[in-house]
Amino acid sequence: MGMPGRRALLGTAGAAVLAVAVPLVGSPADAATAAAGWHGIDVTGSSPALELSMTRASDGRAVTAADFRGRVVMLYFGYVSCPDACPLTMSRIAHVLDNLGPLASQVRVLFVTVDPARDTLPVVRDYASAFGVDFVGLRGTPDALAALARRYRIAYSITPATEDTPEAVTHSSAVYVFDRTGRARLLIPGLASQTPDLDGVTEDMRRLIVGDAPKGLMQRMWDAVLGMV
Amino acid sequence: MDQRMADAPAPAGFGAEHDGFDGDSRTAVAGLGLVLAFAAALWWLCAEHPARLPDWAPWEFSWTQFVAAGLALFWYARGVALTPAARRPGPWRHVAYVGGVAAIYTVLLTHFEYMAQHMFFLNRLQHLVMHHLGPFLIALSWPGASLLRGMPPPVRRVIEWAPLQRVMWVVQQPVIAGTLFVGLIYLWLIPAVHVRAMIDPRLYDVMNWTMVIDGLLFWSLVLDPRPSPPARTSYAMRMLVTTLVMFPQIMLGATITFSTTSLYWYYDVCGRLYPSIGALLDQHIGGVILWIPSAMMSSAAFMLTLNNVRLNEERQPVMEDDDDGPAPISASAWTGR
């Protein structure tokens, strides 16, 4: 083999130009999401399946993902004394469940506290149930919480209170949606923003609850290809 | 790698593996066992007690990454120990090698990784270390001969396996190496691809491995201290390649720095660590990291190559005009013939 020929050079140059152009025109809107027709972000095949080991606040029982099989699950991380983002997100999810009507009984909203030291089981139970019957408060050991947050790339931190400043808690805003089999399907952004797409979320949820026949292998492979572009 | 060996002195015990190699193979197995034992302990701790681990412990444990780092250090140390004292690399080369491996280890197998998963600019810093700084230092230490001598013969045979060498030969063609170097940075920064890589643990692993491996391939091509041959390509070509890769990186860095929209929604949803650093500021800093330090690395490589040219010329005997005419000195002066 000698030096690559002119054609190969042109090819690499073309690829380089394309590589330059793609980030320039690429918008935050995910092309794959648009292709599959979801309003939220399609994470099918990307994010790991639901797996957790927590204590359910309502009855103090240890639960795993198996306890939620057969339901469409929404997973959200927050803390009870959260002043803005958590209650806003939770009330908007409640709004979506209202929109769903009777179908809402097929949904479980898992609220996982990132502040287990202050959020005891009764506190989490009362907080979650205030948003509706389909809301499940979960509390785990620091290790179980770290493992779950790591799995779904959730950032959280607790800065203990000092004499001058109150305790500061931060956490990511992601809401993950899992289908009845526990497969990760959607990531819903912006529920705490000023203009949440609640109708879109409702439509996505309805689609996951009623007609969501599992796709064939070819279809999934094609989706994966689209997802890469 | 075999080319690096070419300039190394044929070492004792190398090429003659069966001469008293049994004792050595026992240390090789013991080293591998030690690395695997550490890996198993860390894997268990990361799986069961992630919240109790200190910041220097891994956040997401990776077997492949840990074993690769452990063996890279062990084989190097063993290779150096097996080298006759007079031929061992100098202390600065040890520092560069261990520093390079440690830098890559730090950004992948400590809690820094957690931070890099939630802030764009820290993710850029992670990639800078994985693809530029770490491999740059490793290539600068020029550890090939020590590594080959320190690794067990079966692994050495895999590395010297002809098809693998042929792949190396292709990807280290200057044009292909430069295109790969820049292309991978661009590929993993295409917004849709970047997001997938960040939420899919398998793709995330692929991304990190491609960055580290490509970094090693590229910098070991550019920072080769030897002239060509045995080096892959001429000093001039190496200086040209390291200069040319600068511009697409500057362009991408500037594009991201000056972008007025948030390009990577992943960090909006799964970030951010510091409330005071919003989406755009995060992106500005990330763009600057992509832009300035990476260009500086190219400049440093350019200067180091110039220095290699100088060192190489000083090493040449002053007999360059031999071809032009009769030799100026006649051997008869001292042979008497």
From TrEMBL, chain A:
Superkingdom in the source lineage: Bacteria
Record has Amino-acid biosynthesis as a keyword: no
Disulfide bond annotation, renumbered to this chain: 82-86
MF annotations from Gene Ontology: metal ion binding
Keywords per UniProt: Copper, Disulfide bond, Membrane, Metal-binding, Signal, Transmembrane
Annotated Pfam families: SCO1-SenC
Signal peptide per UniProt: 1-31
Residues involved in Cu cation binding: 82, 86, 171
PROSITE patterns: TAT (PS51318)
Family label: Belongs to the SCO1/2 family.
Protein name per Swiss-Prot or TrEMBL: Electron transport transmembrane protein Sco1/SenC/PrrC
Organism from which the protein derives: Acidisphaera rubrifaciens HS-AP3
Phylogenetic placement of the source organism: Bacteria, Pseudomonadati, Pseudomonadota, Alphaproteobacteria, Acetobacterales
TrEMBL record, chain B:
Pfam families the record matches: Caa3_CtaG
Highest taxon listed in the record's lineage: Bacteria
GO cellular component: plasma membrane
Presence of the UniProt keyword Transmembrane helix in the record: yes
Keyword Transmembrane helix on entry: yes
Bilayer-spanning residue ranges: 27-45, 65-83, 95-116, 128-148, 169-194, 206-223, 244-267, 287-306
Membrane topology, as annotated: Multi-pass membrane protein
Region feature (Disordered): 315-337
Alphabetically ordered keywords of this record: Cell membrane, Membrane, Transmembrane, Transmembrane helix
Endpoints of the signal sequence: none
Subcellular location: Cell membrane
Identification of the protein by name: Cytochrome c oxidase assembly protein
Organism annotation: Acidisphaera rubrifaciens HS-AP3
Organism classification: Bacteria, Pseudomonadati, Pseudomonadota, Alphaproteobacteria, Acetobacterales
